[in-house]
Design brief:
- The longest helix has 27 residues, at about 280-305.
- The relative contact order is 0.14.
- The protein has a five-stranded antiparallel beta sheet, sandwiched between helices. It has a three-stranded antiparallel beta sheet with strand order 6-8-9, covered by helices on one side.
- The chain is globular and about 65 Å long.
- The chain folds into two domains: about 5-110, Phosphorylase Kinase, domain 1 (2-Layer Sandwich); about 115-339, Alpha-Beta Complex (Aminoglycoside 3'-phosphotransferase, Chain: A, domain 2).
- The protein has helices at about 5-20, 70-80, 130-145, 150-155, 165-180, 185-195, 240-245, 265-275, 280-305, 315-339, and strands spanning about 25-35, 40-45, 55-60, 90-95, 105-110, 115, 205-210, 215-220, 225, 235.
- Helix content is about 45%, strand content about 15%.
- Helix 5 (about 165-180) packs parallel to helix 9, helix 6 packs antiparallel against helix 9 (about 280-305) and helix 9 (about 280-305) runs antiparallel to helix 10 (about 315-339).
- The protein has about 350 residues and is α+β, with helices and mostly antiparallel strands.
Length: about 350
């Protein structure tokens, strides 16, 4: 989007928010936040009636995105953790119609902190221990969230503890079948193994973030200030999030410290204590292999979006290349360990 068009978008956003919140904002600036491919995300700076500047996060649905999700799901997932020990941005508004600003969108207040690349092994130095304890503790809190009062649980179709794994596996295999340009033998071997050896039924149903990992949270010094990117949130087995966060792709150069934070055994101890969920090791290994198949489905979808011209964002080209190769190697190692 050209600069002039972006500024027009920012002014339209300012006008909308002024009307929605019944106060007069002055548009100051708008900047695209790159790094994801599921939404167009902008930081918009406005000045309120008291001449104070405020930053808002403005997330628009794209015509074509790497992960096809309903924006209402993302908004509702955030709503389940407002004013809790799971740090999330304060929600402002969800607009499901395209009539207002040309596409559905949600608006949140901006939190302080920075986001690190998931491939930067030194990103959290020298506070790996402090951030690591918070990272795994927060994931445990997400897993232990009471579903009886969960807006997300009310929004999404009911699941039962016996079929979480099958539904998630079928979903991502269908993505692969739809978007792949050929047969990937190593990936197909992993899919066969997952269908052959199912995990135990979920010990409980929980909110699943869907993309909980390094690179998807804000931090400032030694403090985690916000958990982001809830667009794949759903109800399922809490071991799904754990297997994804533990995946070696997020700690490729230091495999003994998941997410480049703290050692695996310590991380699992913190998560278990916070979630009060006993981990079945074989089931967790299943979910870790599943994470590789899910990852490759996302990378294959990214390549499809780029190669067909639906979404020329360079992140799609990168995703289809390097992360795909890494996940394939991780699958080989995991399958070898099963022999």
């Amino acid at each position: 989007m050209e600069e002039n068009a972006t500024n027009i978008l920012g002014q339209e956003f300012s006008d909308f928010l002024s009307s929605k919140l019944n106060q007069q904002f002055k548009f100051l600036s708008i900047h695209r936040i790159f790094g994801g491919a599921s939404r167009e995300t902008y930081r918009v700076k406005l000045q309120d009636e008291e001449k104070k500047s405020q930053n808002f996060i403005y997330r628009r649905t794209q015509d074509s995105s790497l992960i096809e999700t309903d924006q209402k799901t993302e908004y509702v997932a955030y709503s389940d953790f407002q004013d809790t020990e799971v740090p999330v941005p304060k929600l402002i508004v969800l607009e499901e119609s395209s009539d207002k600003l040309g596409a559905p969108f949600l608006v949140m207040e901006e939190l302080s902190g920075v986001v690190a690349s998931p491939f930067d092994k030194e990103a959290y130095n020298p506070y790996q221990a402090e951030i690591g304890e918070q990272f795994w503790k927060i994931l445990g809190k997400i897993a232990s969230r009471d579903l009886d009062s969960s807006n997300l649980n009310k929004l999404l179709p009911n699941k039962n503890k016996n079929d979480c794994c099958t539904k998630e596996l079928n979903y991502w295999v269908n993505v692969i079948r739809k978007d792949s340009i050929g047969i990937e033998p190593i990936l197909e071997a992993a899919i066969r193994e997952l269908f052959r050896s199912k995990p135990l039924p979920a010990s409980r149903l929980s909110i699943v973030h869907g993309d909980y990992r390094n690179g998807n949270f804000l931090f400032e010094g030694k403090h985690v200030t916000g958990i982001l990117d809830w667009e794949m949130a759903h109800i399922g087995d809490p071991l799904e999030d754990l297997g994804w966060a533990l995946s070696e792709i997020w700690c490729w150069e230091k495999k003994e410290t998941p997410a480049y934070l703290i050692p695996r055994k310590e991380a699992l101890g913190i998560w278990t204590q916070e979630s009060q969920i006993e981990i079945d090791e074989d089931s967790l290994l299943w979910w870790e292999l599943f994470a590789c198949v899910k990852g490759l489905a996302i990378w294959i979808s990214a390549g499809h979006e780029f190669s067909t011209g639906k979404n020329s964002d360079p992140v799609n080209l990168f995703s289809a290349w390097l992360p795909g190769d890494i996940h394939t190697e991780i699958i080989l190692n995991k399958l070898e360990n099963l022999l």
